[in-house]
Specification:
single chain, 59 residues, mainly alpha, 2 helices, 88% helix, 0% strand
Length: 59
């Protein structure tokens, strides 16, 4: 039982340490992903707006 507890504690400490060290990298990746998604959304929205404005009037 002591072995399992020490193993679990070790894994937890190593995981938290790794996350603390890689916090800036994770933030950078999240920022790049957010910028790419915003660009895609803007491109798609602009394309729809141009298509909508380019339709002939159906009166």
């Amino acid at each position: 039982m002591d072995f399992m507890l020490s193993l679990w504690t070790g894994v937890t400490v190593q995981t938290s340490s790794l996350l603390m060290e890689s916090r800036q990298v994770i933030g950078l990746i999240a920022a790049v992903l957010a910028a790419v998604l915003a660009g895609q959304l803007g491109w798609h929205g602009t394309d729809r707006l141009i298509a909508w404005r380019g339709r002939p009037d159906e009166d």
